[in-house]
Amino acid sequence: MCGNRAVINIKVDKAKCSLLYVFYVLLINRSTIETLAVGSVQKNLYISTLGSFELRLPPIGIQNRIAAALSILDSKVDLNTQTNQTLESIAQTLFKSWFVDFDPVKAKIRGEQPEGMDAATAALFPDKLVESDELGMIPEGWTVSVAGTHLDQLETGKRPKGGVKGITEGIPSIGAENILGVGKYNYAKEKFIPEEMFLSMKKGVISSMDVLIYKDGGKPGDFKPRFSMFGFGFPYEICAINEHVFRIRSTSLGQPYLYFTFSSDRIYHELRNKGAKAAIPGINQKDLKSTLLLIPSPAVLERFNSVVQKKLELILKNSKNSLELVNLRDTLLPKLLSGELDLSQLETEDA
Questions:
Q1: Buried b / exposed e across 228-246, counting CB within 10 Å, b at 16+?
Q2: In 3D, which of 304, 200, 179 has the Cα closest to residue 247?
Q3: Taking the alpha carbons of 23, 65, 342, 339 in that order, is the dihedral positive or negative?
Q4: Beta pairing class for 211-214 and 245-249
Q5: Among 31-45, 205-219, 240-254, 268-282, which range has the highest average pLDDT?
Q6: What pTM does this model have?
Q7: Cβ–Cβ contacts within 10 Å for residue 171, how many?
Q8: What pLDDT, on a 0 to 100 scale, did the predictor assign at position 140?
């Protein structure tokens, strides 16, 4: 592959330095390098400017050992990421099988045991599909209802008048840019609100397992809703949302079902269509409340939520662990460079 004009490619003299070591040094100095970019409209980092950035280069053997020690942490982060992708994929597949394709019901109609399902769980599903006015064929005994009748909480947050520019500490305020999916967060794009403002907020304070929805913004005629979920200390123990994000909760449906049903293809496209027609692209509370939801039997809902809750909890805990590993990596590098931390001691502790 190749990079375009927006990318600087770096090659190193392998006799003098380790490429992975250089990567880590540049990574830890990201904030300093950002200050080297110039431009009033769009910041640009010139090759000559980056070329003048000074690197401390210990002997190549030491560089390799430092890079190897830090890459162990990154490997653990990669493993967490892969695990999270697998867990979410399993949960999505289960949701689609039960509540979109109705595989257990269709299997029982054929007189078969639903594949991969124990008898007790299979007994929770009906053995007949019936016609509904709103969503076509659905399992017998299940219903269709507007979301508004099931939402216990539907609210947004706020930020100070004039915005948050220049506020570099306080309480994290999560906006549309960080509604990226369950357990995902870009710390480079985070914003803050003053603590005194947070303490005065009656709405918009995030609770564990909230379903978060990106509600407005984008180009005229185009709106792409996004959904997320935080909790168990990720991305923070305490944080809030701004006016561009909804937080929703439902006791009757359960947070796992609520997350996957709103992020399903049908509702995604329904909300996208509604949001694209607005003068300012986005959705409002009425759009959410009027969204049609498939309401399974309480027993099936309880079973699904019980299984998927554990997977969502593990995703969020893995994400928090990855954050701790990244912070450890970034703390270790300057100590390794200065000799404050002995490499042999680090390797012993890791072992």
A1: bbbbbbbbbeebbbbebbb
A2: 179
A3: negative
A4: antiparallel
A5: 240-254
A6: 0.88
A7: 20
A8: 98
Domains of the chain: 19-80+324-350 (no CATH), 147-295 (3.90.220.20)
What 3-state DSSP class applies to 192? Answer: strand
String of DSSP letters for 254-302: -HHHHHHHHTSHHHHHHHHHHHHHSSSSB--HHHHHT-EEEE--HHHHH
CA–CA gap between residue 91 and residue 96 (Å, rounded)? 9
Q: Is residue 339 scored above 80 in pLDDT?
A: no
Which tokens hold the place of 193?
């609100």
Q: Which two tokens stand for residue 90?
A: 């399993």
Q: Which one, of 316, 330, 347, 338, lies nearest residue 88 by Cα?
A: 316
Q: How many residues does the chain have?
A: 351
User: In a 10 Å sphere around its CB, with 0-12 CB exposed, 13-18 middle and 19+ buried, how is residue 261 labelled?
Assistant: buried
Beta strands in the chain (DSSP E): 129-132, 136-139, 143-146, 153-156, 171-174, 191-193, 211-214, 227-229, 240-241, 245-249, 292-295
**Which residues contact residue 255 at a Cβ distance below 8 angstroms, ignoring those fewer than 6 apart?**
209, 210, 211, 229, 249, 305, 309, 312
Maximum alpha-carbon separation in the chain: 74
Q: What crossing angle do the helices spanning 19-28 and 60-99 adopt, rounded to 10°?
A: 70
Please give the angle made by the CA atoms of 204, 207 and 213, to the nearest 5 degrees. 60
Q: Kindly give the pairing relationship between strand 292-295 and strand 171-174.
A: unpaired
Q: What is the CB neighbour count within 10 angstroms for residue 99?
A: 22
